Amino acid sequence: MGPARRVRFRFGMVGRRWGFARRRPQFGRRPVAAAALPQETVQALVTTHEQAAPAPAEHTWPVLSAFGSLEVRIAETEAEIEAAQRLRYRVFYEEMSAIPTPQMRDERRDFDRYDEFCDHMLVVDRSVQDANGEPAVVGTYRLLRGEVAACHGGYYTSSEYDLTPMLKGNPPGTRYLELGRSCVLKSYRAKSTTMQLLWKGIVVYLNRYAIDVMFGCGSLPGTDPEALKLPLSYLHHFHQAPEGLHVCARPELYVPMNLMAKDEIDPKEAVRKLPPLIKGYLRAGCFIGDGAVVDRQFGTTDVLIYFPVAHIDRRFVTKFGRTS
């Protein structure tokens, strides 16, 4: 199969910069057959939060933003998704302490069942070619919309957190987007351009699908909650989600985050101990769920990120573009 054609766009200034031309391009990537789920399971997922949508027709994404030789877009071919998986393997398993399965180790890719039907946002460097002669993938995010999750058995995050309060606590028709598997190649982290392009792409994606709520798992390195008591307690006391929208870790996985009294916390020191991605979420206006989860495969302690789009900080909007 040859590479998919892409329609390239230039965006105007902020306000128009992350909008589209009058004739909007179609978004998405190749259709995927729904998983073989019992009809009652699919219906339960659909009626909980939003109506399932039919599989989209095959079409292409535009380039969402560019800076120098870097551009951000959605993967359109299996080869591009595999390039994102290889980047994830390099970061999570070789650079960090995640434990691969034998098949992952043999193929040097990070993958799971969700990859088949998620959208994969990529930052590629057009000045660098990978082993296949394609622009190198240097950053990625995995995106799962609610209507897609409803057709394929739910969200990845539900393996760690009970999402029921979120799905039932928001109005009917609320549109959700799960964020996950975010990583940037080490040599591209010194400057913030790659991560900024990912966020600009996400803002376009939010507008295209009229997303109301983003959520996902944010990870702190290490599996000893006691060693992480300062940042975990800070997140618990200063950024907990509003009453009625408390998303809790699954009971069998629940790790308390309230490990220090609020008046014992030095907020500045606590923030310094947070990973850059979680710091960015907090600056943009996210909330944190109730309870942490130790992920021994990835060598991390996870927290729930809950992010109503209407709550996005105005400085974030100014920097990355408006949200509808």
Description:
There is one protein chain. The chain has 324 residues and is of the alpha+beta class. The protein has a single domain, classed as Gcn5-related N-acetyltransferase (GNAT) (Aminopeptidase, 3-Layer(aba) Sandwich), CATH 3.40.630.30. It is built from ten helices and eleven strands. It has helices at residues 39-49, 78-95, 102-107, 146-151, 164-169, 193-209, 229-238, 267-272, 276-284, 314-320; strands spanning 65-67, 70-74, 119-129, 135-145, 161-162, 176-184, 213-221, 248-249, 287-288, 293-295, 300-308. Strands 1, 2, 3, 4, 6, 7, 9, 10 and 11 form a nine-stranded mixed β-sheet that branches. A hairpin with a 4-residue loop joins strand 10 and strand 11 (300-308). The longest helix is centred in the first third of the chain and has 18 residues, at 78-95. The protein is globular.
